[in-house]
Specification:
Largest sheet: 5 strands, parallel
Helix content: 40-55%
Shape: globular
Oligomer: single chain
Order of helices and strands: HHHHHHHHEHEHEHEEHH
Radius of gyration: 22 Å
Number of strands: 5
Strand order of the largest sheet: 2-1-3-4-5
Distance between the termini: 79 Å
Strand content: 5-15%
Mean pLDDT: 87
Low-confidence stretches: 1-10, 90-95
Structural class: alpha/beta
Number of helices: 13
Length: 286
């Protein structure tokens, strides 16, 4: 007598788990599950807030479905769903081994990203944030992963202008720093998805202390925007399962460079400070 071995739950994809549990889902959970099955390609790019809105349920329902399917949370569910979508699409795609063609596509995509981000920039928001930064006693910038790299770059740019700025990629140190930020301080949070837990918590902490908060994100309907005095939008975010980060990096950098340009006119001493800071590293170069 042959024995059929079932696939362990933790190795199953999101779609297979939905189908496995379909018979035991409540009406509200089934409503979300059916929506995911119909439009998985869109869902993998959505925040929990956006999925809840498009499926016509509350965010708590999304969380309950993820747990019902044995996922730790919505992000883990999206990663599994993205793997399902990638596997489904791989049969119709061929590997890109043409370096010249790949380079051309990257250049074209980068140009589109910059153009799209430029169109999203609101001059009034840039002016408002630049004004706050120009007079801030200290600026704390927080970001995780790739966003943390951009945070470090902008902190360096502000230092060159004579503005006290620190970038934090350690969430614990960031929280401690924010809790001791002087009155009038500014906290900037970078998160492409808008739902990076640490970054959201940092802006919430800063807001609770009465500080001016700035979110830089791709998602208008995301948790981080709830705790931002002002929001600056980028045009793209990373794919859930790839290491293609160029769109995120260049769109965030463009937003911050425009913000930097807005600062220059608000700091009359900028030219002199830039010269001093440039001269400070002269002996570090041949």
């Amino acid at each position: 007598m042959s024995q059929t071995l079932s696939r362990p739950a933790h190795t199953q994809g999101a779609i297979s788990r939905i189908r496995l549990h379909a018979h035991s889902l409540s009406p509200s959970l089934k409503q979300v599950a059916d929506h995911v099955l119909r439009d998985a390609e869109t869902v993998i790019h959505q925040t929990i807030t956006e999925l809840a809105a498009s499926a016509g349920v509350g965010e708590a329902t999304i969380t309950r479905l993820c747990r019902k399917l044995d996922f730790a949370g919505f992000h883990a569910f999206k990663i599994a769903l993205a793997a399902d979508v990638a596997g489904r699409d791989s049969s119709t795609q061929t590997a890109d081994t043409d370096l010249t063609g790949h380079t051309a596509r990257l250049v074209k995509q980068s140009t589109l990203t910059l153009d799209d981000t430029g169109r999203l920039l609101d001059p009034d928001v840039i002016e408002a944030v630049a004004s706050q930064l120009a007079r801030a006693p200290r600026v704390d910038i927080t970001g995780q992963g790739n966003s943390g790299l951009v945070a470090q770059l902008f902190a360096h740019r502000l230092l060159r202008l004579g503005i006290t700025a620190v970038a934090y990629t350690d969430p614990h140190v960031a929280a401690v720093s924010i809790s001791t930020l002087p009155r009038g301080g500014v906290v900037i949070g970078l998160t492409s998805s808008g739902s990076t837990i640490d970054t959201v918590q940092h802006l919430r902490l800063a807001q609770s202390h009465g500080h001016y908060t700035v979110a830089i994100t791709h998602r208008a309907s995301s948790p981080v925007t709830r705790y931002a005095s002002k929001v600056l939008f980028t045009s793209r975010q990373e794919e859930p399962l790839t290491d293609a980060v160029l769109d995120t990096l260049i769109s965030q950098t463009l937003v911050l460079e425009v913000l930097y340009a807005g600062l220059l006119s608000r700091r009359p001493e900028a030219a002199a400070v830039l010269r001093v800071t440039a001269e400070s590293v002269v002996e570090k170069k041949y």
